[in-house]
């Protein structure tokens, strides 16, 4: 008998003015030990289906099903005791954002131990001892310390490991992972996925992997269920879905995985780049209190970064969270004040200009942010939002301004009739189009795009990338594209700058960087990209920060022409390819 | 943690001193004094002698320091309204009824409000929620003198169950306590409702459910503890506000409490009592905020344990 049996599942939510179906006619089953992936974009009903299986939906949800069984129990008829047994013991769940998934006021140890104690009669001391063993099994080395830590003292990756340990605590028969790596960096994502596979094998569990990322699917599961708009589009073995997709939506998803790269058109004009950052650095002074002693220190968020953005080109700034990439982007716009260094726009250093002198340069540089929802004023219509830059810079009459705004709406692929709408009426992708229109209406020469696609679904992401690419060619834009998503970078940008701990550690034309990475961190980053085909999935080894430092490349003076130094420096190893290395005689 | 508390104590002490300076200066900014010509027609020499005797001829900052030195020894002087006793004696006599009535009001009202707020949040959009919201709105919008008149009308006049006013028999306490309880009850019901709803919407609650914890444990251990964090910051300050007596309630129920003295000491320019009352309230508020800060830090590990490793 299958572990999970779902037949004819329908979930609807009561809302003002009726019921809205979130999931319709969904049927699938999972056998013991099997790995099943559910893939679909946000709102496709993938999470709702699995939450219904554990009855975790809010009271406004109505669930109907011909069959909804978990571990032999009819979930719809389950009473309190049945539910408590199903949750945690038959099926355990891990969630998207580990930072918010733990109760902030209790220690990690307490939260794992209470899970064990909820299901077994066992003393607190023994439960804590078991929790420590579990933390060791998810490869947390200082498990005994972590037991006493509060959630805010751990990083996202560590918390997700602890979350997995907690899920394992009652030896569930099935592990439901709801976007477990979406909030994490690429390298951490690869580690967590590998860990999930490892513990699945060790504990002999079944796995449901809910994700919007086909790469995650390729890495982890045997069978795939594709969902769209609350319904199942198709279902089959993972290789079949990847190699012979039947449904159009699946085909579109796969196409986004294999987007082709085309170099940007237009003359790069090597002599006069659109934007040049010279030795740009940002440090924050820190105050640490130990008792009454206050020690002052300096935190180097960005250390003397040199970046050149040629005209008509798209340059990627890549790195994990905390690497300083966003700070660099904001400094380039003078939205964060740099501590040192120069920002050269069209030959002028704008790093020391005062507010008034900066205004003409503001017109030439614009920015698009990751979260389009908070980037748009909710009280303004789209026309007002897009026309606002014109208003600020006093360009044209109000009538001309709105006319131009409406033209831009069309240019970014939205109908003119959208002009009177408000941001909350739009989808994420549509909002990002509005943000792009607002940024480009002044016809800037430089656009800083700070993770503009990371909050979007795969298919929408591809559309936004295409839009950016088209507009770049039409307007002769230069784009600084900040991202942690290497697959997007590969299909969009001309060259890549890799940042690590506030430093640039490698820089090369995109194709060259992906083909011949020199720095161990770049290699780790590229290695962590999920496979695009289930046949390519593999075991990975992960480097610690110490490993990366120990493996810093070494070159001789003759190879690079740079002066020897025991400290790492950026050296040129090929035209346009620089890497941080130690130069020896 | 110890250093954190000590820092808070120092900052509270500083606040108290600043407020005392402001109050002292305001007192002296108002024209008129005890030995003014129309109040006390005596010769210039006698007046000067009296001024010197009471230290009133000295510069203001010396007077302030003298005064504060006295305050430090709990010597607030003699109230002009009742020269037979010291300010401290008057306050300790008059404060007892206010403290009993106001204190019980908060101690009864706050827990009831918390329970009501929780019940409302856990049964959102049901009649319980609507009832709690209605009650809270009434409690917050109807002024206490109207509430007290209503209570007197219903329980003393119509039903004739309780005496309308007076002191000191405990059955006369019931109506004023009910009056005092209304505001903390309403405020707490509203705060608790929104704090609990906020907590319930946080992702970790779903995680707790998915772990198979009982709903009771989730509510009473996790949700309560998290919701308590924003609540502790309002509890003590509200306690002080009520426990120092309300002019209206004490007047309505003819309670010989502290409330009346706030008004009378201004009317008759009773400097010593006025200063003492204001400093007392300032001190109580400072203490209340200090204690809530400490409670907040104890409940919230982000403050207690500090940042990431």
Distance between the termini of chain B: 17 Å
Percent of residues in helices of chain A:
25-40%
Low-confidence stretches of chain B at least 5 residues in length (pLDDT < 50)? none
Question: What is the number of E strands of chain B?
Answer: 0
Quaternary structure classification: heterodimer
Structure explained in plain terms:
The complex is a heterodimer of chains A (585) and B (309). Chain A is α/β, with parallel strands linked by helices and 585 residues long. Chain A is built from 23 helices and 24 strands. In chain A, helix 5 (124-137) crosses helix 7 (156-168) and helix 17 runs parallel beside helix 18. Chain B is an all-alpha fold and 309 residues long. Chain B has a single domain, classed as MetI-like fold, CATH 1.10.3720. Helices cover 74% and strands 0% of the residues of chain B. Chain B contains 13 helices and no strands. The interface between A and B is medium-sized, with 37 and 29 residues.
Comma- or semicolon-separated keywords:
heterodimer, A: 585 residues, alpha/beta, Rossmann fold, 2 domains, nine-stranded mixed β-sheet, 24 strands, globular, B: 309 residues, mainly alpha, MetI-like fold, 13 helices, 74% helix, MetI-like (chain B), MetI-like_sf (chain B)
